[in-house]
Amino acid sequence: MKLVMLGTSAAQPTERRGLSCICLEKDGEILMFDAGEGAQVAFLKSGLGWNKRMKIFVTHMHGDHCIGILGLLQTMTLQHRTEHMEIYGPDGIEEFIANNIKSLNFGLSFAVLITAVRRGIVCEEKTYRIHCESAMHTVPAFSFLFEEKDRPGKFDLQKAKELGVPEGPLWHELQTGKEVVVGGRTIRPSEVVGQKRPGKKVGISGDTRPTKQLEEFFRDCDYVTFDSTFSDSLGEKAKETGHSTAVEAAILAKNANVKNLVLTHFSARYRDESDLLEEAKKIHGSVVAASDLLEIEIR
Ligand SMILES: [Zn+2]
Ligand SMILES: [Zn+2]
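^ thats the input. predicted complex w/ zinc ion below
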């Protein structure tokens, strides 16, 4: 599983940074969080692939987070995508996409399913859930949480062979927690299957002030990408515009026991984000400043 930061600039692009877009790739599926203008170009450069299973989650209806959806869908059509696409976002997301497709009069080569989200579980698959929580911004906005379900323990092939369990259906029985009998002896799953491995949790803040609610929402996450639009000296501006400073992101991450913090959504006024990173590092022990196309392996 890996996080790919496709766009890390706030409000307007810079020479080095594109607009908000973050992908989480897991088992060949792409979960995209926001698609600012130019997302398709960053997506192309990342090599993530045009025809993968994919869902897009939109945090809020500001242009720098959703204008890129149309270009992405259009390019995917030109790339002959056939896999359906699921899009989740605030009220208005369906109208926004439908109106644009209608006025530009373009057809898609694949089905798009659009769902307006509320707080709570947004979607659930066999191996993960996506949760949604209200953020605090200048328009209705959400934060998302990817929660991987606990993974089964490792199956000890050598041990299974030693115990005389023949390869085949009996291995599957043990892997799924059932006892099996071989040569009159009962073999328990715990003899050949290791401890369950806890699933990973990855949080995506979108644009927001730091809030107690989000601190709880992101509790114990392995990774959180958080709005770090401003440096500490522009704290008032962060309040006025419904954003956070890198310091506020670090304080929230520390309070929430987040293991690794990824700063992103930097104001275009910063040619270099090293000051913001230094400020955050004084508070939290594991912080990186995102850059476009940065890939973070999550193990
Ligand atoms: Zn933004
Ligand atoms: Zn915004």
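Residues 64 and 70 are 13 Å apart (CA to CA).
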